[in-house]
Amino acid sequence: MAGIEVTSLHKRYPDGTVAVEHVDLSIGDGELFVMLGPSGCGKTTTLRAMAGLERQTSGDIRIGDTLVNDLPPAERDIAMVFQFYALYPHLKTRDNLAFPLRAEGMPKAEIRERVDEAARMMRLGPLMDRKPHRLSGGEQQRVALARALVRRPRAFLMDEPLTNLDAELRADTRTEIKHLQAELGTTMVYVTHDQVEAMSLGHRIAILNKGRVEQVGTPLEVYNRPASLFCAAFIGSPPMNLLDVEVADGLLRAPGGLALTPPSGLRRDRPLVAGVRPEALEITPPGTQDTVPCEVVSVEVLGDEIIYVVTSGEQDVRVRMPRTVRFDPEEAVGLRHTGGPPPVYDSSTEELVA
Ligand code: ATP
């Protein structure tokens, strides 16, 4: 097992596209590390450089104590799982699992032991004598995961491995991957554009944007204190409210007069935006003390909770409320902030300032 160090990784493709710009990542031994970001942000390129499938323009990659820049993929002792299962169609599950070990010339008895163990971990028992065309998408992906396991690599690199599964299977397989990683304790780097997947899987998450790392943190850290306006808008569903604010009378005031608890150390000499989660706001009957008057614009019932959009000083604000609290569109309501000091950003640099 091994941690992975990426230092000043830069990748420019021959056509001039800069996919990755001086990325630094320090992934701990045994960590489940997620790289999250929108399409085209450079996640796959970074992962493929770790795997040795793409040569970086500059920068270093270390796996454990080894500088792997010049090592071909087969000598990096990692296993990759992609969004496409890439099983051999003419081989039964058992032989698909054994294939990479036979290729290494491993003794038969040891191959059998490793294949049986991987089959047990991924619950493939009844599927061992089937060829891929007789397996469902989810089963094929479990075989692909098991095939990565048998090699007992120093690290797993996964590129959107659940993309082709339906919602229920996706959630189940996600849980399996999480348990597997915890059981084996093997370092895993997992690429996804799905923030729910990132939040539920990652020990830590790196948020990438336009080839750069915008934030690295635990799921709670990135949720509670997004490091930039990009991260603030990207993490959370429904997303954070990004409200233009001014400092007045020791308070932060949003349009419409909504008062927010100010964080300490705030400077007034720049345009500010506060990031307010929908669950840090509350709507009440109109005229309630310490509220500002608003009107309900829309009501979205999501099972146990309701997302209201209300207008406050011409800004639309999302509010998350329990299902038991009911207001109708166009109804007059009161709005107040119930959370602690929100993160505040400089709207010109888009950086977190307090
Ligand atoms: P997705 O989630 O869509 O896979 P990603 O975040 O993994 O996206 P990359 O695949 O790493 O992003 O691509 C990063 C940038 O590099 C994109 O602008 C992409 O168009 C570009 N790119 C990727 N591969 C090549 C290539 N072989 N030649 C030129 N440009 C490329």
TrEMBL record:
- A Pfam family reported for this protein in Swiss-Prot or TrEMBL: TOBE_2
Which stretches of sequence are listed as region Disordered? 331-354
Start and end of every ABC transporter domain? 4-235
**Molecular functions (GO terms):** ATP binding
Q: Give the matching SUPFAM superfamilies.
A: MOP-like (SSF50331), P-loop containing nucleoside triphosphate hydrolases (SSF52540)
**CDD domains from the UniProt entry:** ABC_MalK_N
Q: Which sequence ranges form a coiled-coil region, renumbered to this chain?
A: none
Keywords, in A-Z order: ATP-binding, Cell membrane, Membrane, Nucleotide-binding, Translocase, Transport
The name of this protein is: ABC transporter ATP-binding protein
Task: Record the organism.
Answer: Georgenia wutianyii
